[in-house]
Amino acid sequence: MNPCFKLLALLFFFAICKVSAQTLTQTLRGNIVDQVSKSPMPGATVMLLDTDPLLGGVSDEKGNFKIQNVPLGTYTVRVSFVGYRDAILSRIQVNSGKETVLSVSIEEDLGQMQEVTVLAADKDRTVNDMIAVSGRTFSVEETRKFAAAVNDPARMASSFSGVVSTDDGNNHISIRGNNPNALLWRMEGIDIPNPNHFAFPGTAGGGISILSAQLLTNSDFITGAFPAEYGNALSGVFDLSLRKGNNEKREFTIQAGFLGTDIAVEGPFSKNYKGSYLINYRYSTLSIISQLGVPLGDFVTNFQDLSFNFFLPTGDNSTITVFGFGGLSDQNRNAEKDSLRWNQESDRFSSTFISNTGAVGIKHSRILNKSNFLQTTLLASGSSLGDKYGRLNQEYQNDARFSSDYGQSKITFSTVLNSKLSPKYNLRSGVYLNQLYYNMNEKAYDEITGQMQTQIDAKGNTQSVQAFSQLNIRASQRLTLNMGLHYLQLLLNNSNSLEPRLGLSFELDEKQRVSLGYGLHSQVHPLGTYFANQEVNGESLLPNLDLDLSKSHHVVLGYDRSLNPYLRMKIETYYQHLFQIPIKAGEDQTYSILNQEWTLVTDPLVNRGLGKNYGAEFTLEQFTHRNLYFLLSASVFNSLYQTEENRWRNTRFNGGGNMVFTAGKEYLWQKNRTFGINLRTIYSGGLRTTPINLQESISKGETVYEESMAFEQKNPNYFRSDIRVSLKRNRPNSTRTLALDIQNVTNHKNVFGSYFEPMESKLKTIYLTPMIPLLSYRVEF
Q1: Both 248 and 99 in a single domain?
Q2: pTM of the complete model
Q3: What is the pLDDT of residue 285?
Q4: Which end of the chain is more exposed for a tag (fewer CB within 10 A), N or C?
Q5: Contact yes or no for 585/187 (Cβ under 8 A)
Q6: Which Pfam families match (predicted)?
Q7: CB–CB of 725/741 below 8 Å?
Q8: Domain harbouring 680, CATH code
């Protein structure tokens, strides 16, 4: 061997050894403010409890702190300030690729400072201090670590109690037996349109989230009886918070995988300005996976999205934030132009589907004084959804079978005032004004006339108004009350609702807590429902224009117990009574909008339906301790509905029960390398379906359902296991993570439903997603 080569090899070997032996560190810094007024807290003490010797720092006059040369790892951080409760932040990850930047809100203490024990219950408290029941915080680390979550909050939430995924191919979730479309999405304190690719009209989910985990910070997920500031939802709320970009150092994240490529950049606008930017772009084509031999269907699928957050301080007491997201997605399928290869009816169909949505907002936040904080936001949002498909006839000409084009846009103005009336009383009040624009068309093929018939044809604008006020009362160190009112009105038909809300939390001792929540909630229907067109004697009528809001009463009783500093148990039981639900009129009709999931209903409806959901949930969770975490959630529930036939029937989502086990463990492998393994196993009752009348279907050449047996058939129980393995390596100034997610690792054939195949005159079964491997590689620097 060449002597020079030997020398270079030896030097390279020693260089590797030097890097491997090097102890890598990173900076941990952040900002500390009062929980209500958002005033900076100078002189607060920040300690890393897992270091020896202890590392820490003190906040400056603007509430900022910085701890340098922190060894890489996972820490518990305690923030202390005289007259305030200690804030405990667990699972704070410090990597070499990026600085760790925290935003901490601390709560004023009613009594004398006492010795604080780090309890598991502290992790369960929500970012919003007025959520008393059925709420939990989720972090970016959870969306990244949970097996098969693929950085999607909705897919991650299916690990939580009371949450059931209704379709592997989409992130639709049913909360406590409710329709997936009863969910509300919020961002930075304001309602946003459905932030998912491949969304159908009127839905609250889609194929995959537009919002990248790169932009999110700790956020709240609420599953019922939510406080007064949330409205226009019946089941749950995703209350998302955006992370500010690093305002001292430019940083990058690049992630490549089978689902696409993400590129994120963040940093300061200038050295002398504390503002920052954070931008993420993603492009993907799922057809790559299909080309590797994984069966994903016959559609060519593409999507791309952009999201951003610009933080702009405008003085010591005010800031402006410009934020937004946008996503483009489409699916296309071409018919088989050879009749000899028509094995099933779908081979003759071609389709084009687009789903585009976006929002951009500007938020002004101002600290008026030590007791008042005002936040004003203006948001412009919109969506364009289109779906067309046709059938080839014997001459290979395309006969239209369905066409829809739904355009909606909205301008929202909101202003919210937070007031600290005293250490015991906090008041939050606000108003939301929405200007809605719509341009919607839908046509469907009529088998009787042999022509396309107009189902929806509407263009115009309307308004909606929401207002709320809620009071937080800390009656004692152990008892907290939240009470308030929410008002919702749709000016299209002046339907409205005044809704009382109540939450109570009582700490039995330092380890136990009981909670009680009640709320009256309402929801506006998808706009297209109001404009369903009906032809009567040659005249077009709108029978649904005066539909009232759907409403529900929701009561929740909960019990929390910390079994040790890292292990928490939680039990909740609930009852939800739904009323004014749109149904088809008639004692022989079984249709209820509670079961409508994919498309807009265009039949005449009346507000005389009922529904009820009740059940119990159990959660046992170990927060990361010694690099191990697990979450066991189980629920039993019943979900029923009633029409004018005066009979309680199962809803589509009444699986009866659900159990999910999620866990993960990290192993230190050599210095600065971490091997992680995460798994999730789901076992739940199958969704309900309506049986198909085979003989009638054969006779008519199309699917005919046994409507008298609506949702009496139940799919086989659902079972799925996912696994994620990852290797993270910290290098000087960079962190690299290689991960493999295997969804449905046992390739279990879960049933989605059945359909009638006219060409074979028999029923066929549709199965959910098979085993899918997803490889990704992320670099942070």
Answers
A1: no
A2: 0.89
A3: 63
A4: N
A5: no
A6: CarbopepD_reg_2
A7: no
A8: 2.40.170.20
The SS3 assignment for 363 reads strand
Please choose, from the candidates 406, 403, 385, the residue with its C-alpha nearest in 3D space to the C-alpha of residue 445: 403
Q: Of all residues in the chain, what percent carry a pLDDT higher than 90?
A: 58
- Give the per-residue pLDDT at 299: 60
Among the candidates 88, 118, 148, a domain finishes at 118
Could you report the per-residue pLDDT of 91-127, keeping only the tens digit for each?
788 898 888 898 888 888 876 444 444 333 345 578 8
Q: Are 222 and 388 in contact (CB under 8 A)?
A: no
List pLDDT tens digits, range 460-492.
Answer: 999 999 999 999 999 988 999 999 999 999 999
| Count of alpha carbons within 13 angstroms of residue 21, beta-carbon side | 6
Structural domain boundaries enclosing 249: 236-780
Contact 280, 242 (CB under 8 A): no
| All residues at 6 or more sequence positions from 404 whose CB lies less than 8 Å from its CB, including other chains | 201, 385, 386, 387, 388, 441, 442, 443, 456
Q: Which two tokens stand for residue 412?
A: 């929202």
pLDDT over 70 percentage in the chain: 93
Report the amino acid identity of residue 640.
Answer: L
**How far is the C-alpha of 333 from the C-alpha of 392, rounded, in Å?**
13
Structurally, how many domains does the chain consist of? Answer: 2
Question: How high is the pLDDT of residue 460?
Answer: 94
Residue 69: give its domain's CATH number.
Answer: 2.60.40.1120
Does 433 fall in a domain? yes
Comparing CA positions, the residue from 541, 547, 438 lying closest to residue 493 is 547
- Give the pairing type, strands 479-490 and 451-474: antiparallel
| Position 406 in a domain | yes
As a whole number of angstroms, the distance between CA 489 and CA 497 comes to 7
pLDDT for 396 equals 85
Flag whether 709 is in a domain.
yes
DSSP assignment letter at 668: E
Q: Tell me: do 109 and 247 sit in the same domain.
A: no
Q: How many residues does the chain have?
A: 781
Residue 116, pLDDT score: 40
C-alpha torsion 365→368→372→376, nearest 10? -30
Identify the weakest region by mean pLDDT among 287-296, 313-322, 752-761: 287-296
pLDDT digits 0-9 by tens, 55-101 = 888 989 888 999 988 888 888 888 989 888 888 887 788 898 888 89
Give the separation between CA 475 and CA 483, rounded to whole angstroms. Answer: 13
Query: Helix, strand, or coil here: 420?
Result: strand
What are φ and ψ of residue 656, in 5° steps? 90, -25
Task: Using the 3D structure, point to which of 118, 138, 156 is the last residue of a domain.
Answer: 118
Report yes or no on 523 lying in a domain: yes
